[in-house]
Amino acid sequence: MIDVRLFRNDADRVRAALARRGKPDIIEQLDRAIALDVRAREISTERDNIRAKVNELSKKVGQARRDGDSAAADEAQAASRALGDDETRLAAQADEVHEQLREVLLRIPNLPHPDAPDGAGDHDNPLVKGPLQMPAEFAAHQRVPHWDAAAELGILDNDRATKIAASMFTMQRGAGAALARALCQLALDRNADAFEEVRPPTMVSTATLTATGHLPKFADDAYAIERDGLWMIPTAEVPLTSMYAGEILDEAQMPLRLMAYTPCYRREAGSAGRDTRGMLRSHEFDKVEILALATPEQAPALLHELVERAEKTIASLELPYRIIEICTGDMGQSHHRSFDIEVYAPGCDSWLEVSSVSWFSDYQARRADIRFRRTGQKGTEFANTLNGSALAVPRVWAAIVENHRQADGSVVIPAALRPYMRGLERIAP
RNA sequence: GGAACGGUGGCAGAGCGGACAAAUGCAGCCGCCUUGAAAGCGGCCGGCUCGCAAGGGCCCGGGGGUUCAAAUCCCUCCCGUUCCGCCA
Length: 429
Fold this sequence. Notes:
By secondary structure, the chain is of the alpha+beta class. The chain has helices at residues 4-19, 24-67, 70-107, 146-153, 158-164, 175-191, 206-211, 237-242, 299-316, 363-368, 393-403; strands at 127-132, 196-198, 203-205, 224-225, 230-232, 248-250, 256-265, 284-294, 321-325, 337-345, 350-359, 371-373, 381-382, 384-392, 411-412, 426-427. It contains 11 helices and 16 strands. The strands form 4 sheets. An 8-stranded mixed β-sheet has the order 1-9-10-11-14-8-7-2. The protein has a 3-stranded antiparallel β-sheet with strand order 3-5-4. Helix 2 (24-67) runs antiparallel to helix 3. It is elongated, with a radius of gyration of 27 Å. The protein binds one RNA strand through helix 2 and helix 3.
């Protein structure tokens, strides 16, 4: 969440920054938060003054008892008891206002970075690089949607996935399953030089899902295990970000770099019925995520590093791609600045989002309470968090099947993946 | 799932109604001493929050309660350890 001090000190600046997101209700929420914050401080001060008196009187009672002056003790005790009702009432009020403030704050999105481009929606996202590795022309055999191409090869069996689970689940078979696994291996190996591999839980607590910004606003998008108070993770970002929740890091150990392969679970509540064919959208998919906990100074360079790492992995798969920056109107709630990498899929004739890299400033760290201490200095600051998909399997899988499809219907495996596929060079029927 | 015992500062570990933000040790910081270091000596050494400041409030796993006063008593939840049960 955003820092209350930001709008206490300069409400206009915060209002202007949030206005760039183009959602009027956000400004209403902000003004509500500002009013609640003023009220909360008033009540808290009042409550604290009464508490100070009670504490003082209580000390007097103790002292008088020790001195054997029971008359003075009784008097102070009675005086303190008289303050009890006021204290109880004010404390309840203060708690209530604080809770209201928190509820509002949790729903206010992050401030966009000054360099983030203005825009109303995804059609305004500017191209920052590419298209790269784009052939002059696609052959007719590449213009076959991957669901058809894959069915021919027997590597995708969504009908049976639907039978076993529900619609919008996918199932890869044979070389298709190996391809999905190989992509994860590749992404992990390409980043193992700088990132610690983690195998985190894929079910997490409500607090954990709140820290990254997925709750309370987006509860409908996540799978809930209500009986046990747990949620299925929508991305490894969730457990990795909260690994250091409530902890204070040393500046010397930063940036902390983590990566994880995990399955990701999404209800796709807002897009049910869309992209139902093939591998474009599903309730469960595999992804390798890379993430950093950094100081504010380290963050900009890390953002570019994460983008570059994701880009290089896509490039190694010999796929046509481009990089776009997300404009203020299309940014996620927690995002400060973000970039997407899109791969062109000739069979579907569309650009598929295969990686999203974002910088969250201290927005998530504040929710998760991840702080750091500068070397030799007192006090703590909130860390900055950044993360990105090193590789999201299904759409890359689809793009490989479409781009690398040959005239005979077989699919050539990019050289970078062959070591992970027992040397397989081509998937043939 | 059942039983017992626990959860206190960076770590270890006292405290078990009042003088406790909390002994003591270790680690850390500053100074003295020293050619340098170690040892020794002296001092400092948690976080959050309100306030221009003086100063105030909160935090001893979370939440609730009893009391003039709670780390300390009661309830409840969570987590840990050990034993039993079950299990890959």
